[in-house]
Amino acid sequence: MVDNIVYKFFADYIYKHTGIVYAENEYYRLDRRLQHLYEAFGLSNIDQLYQLYNSNDHGGMVSKDMHEKLLEIATNNETYFFRDATHFDILTKVIIPEIQKERSGKGPHIWSAGCSTGQEPYSLLMTILDLFQDLKFAIDATDISAPALIKAKKGNYDNLEIQRGMPTKTLLKYFKQQEDDTWTIKSLYSPYINFSHLNLLSDSFPSSEYNVIFCRNVLIYQNQINKKNIVQKFYNALKPRGYFIMGSGESLNGLDIPLTRKFIEGGMVFQKEK
Ligand SMILES: C[S@@+](CC[C@H](N)C(=O)[O-])C[C@H]1O[C@@H](n2cnc3c(N)ncnc32)[C@H](O)[C@@H]1O
Hints:
Shape: globular
Radius of gyration: 20 Å
Strand content: 15-25%
Number of domains: 2
CATH class of the largest domain: Alpha Beta
Mean pLDDT: 93
Number of helices: 10
Bound molecules: S-adenosylmethionine
Low-confidence stretches: none
């Protein structure tokens, strides 16, 4: 039987560094994750893991490797290609044409915040290139998880991952089959996406930079205070009339941020007015 103090120690650590909340009634969700972690360190139970992280040897400080491994197990990296397809329709049918009308000379700058293993930014890339061959655009893709970003940068997926959402025609156009039967994004397309590490909670964002920010299925794990802080930073990072897009089950209810809710093409997005 694991003592609640042990769970609380890990839940507090995760909250402090990621904003992800594991409430007391959700401590059981940490079990399997902490098991992966103690196995990775060659230990045999959670108590030993607690001793390692909490030991005086570290003087309350956790090494970089231990820190990153703990954040790795705390995040949920579930994602798939063309998730919430309506958002991609809104982008190509409404948002990009609107930006083109502005004739600012600059193409859309898009941010996939919490991009996980890359399926979201690659879906954005393929959607845009399919319909706007001559458009200048750039995609920034960020995540807190180092291993997720390594995979995203490689753009290499096994058949199971490919089968989740990728049409065959699209696969053959943008990906190259490898000898081990996995698929890798063709090198021609890699330069469109700039992957980097960013902690939404503690890092600062650029100001008035993006035409569109996708932050889907990321803020659901944050409490209301953190969510408000992060969305306020997104608001500042948007250009005037820029769009903020969340997962289909998510909302900005109760946050009091001046983003206007819009229903387009059967989906919901938020727009900065000025
Ligand atoms: C469930 S995935 C969503 C992936 C993709 N946006 C989608 O909708 O398919 C959530 C991602 O958010 C990242 N994440 C969680 N907390 C974060 C934080 N504080 N800063 C940056 N990324 C974070 C996780 O590492 C994970 O990859």
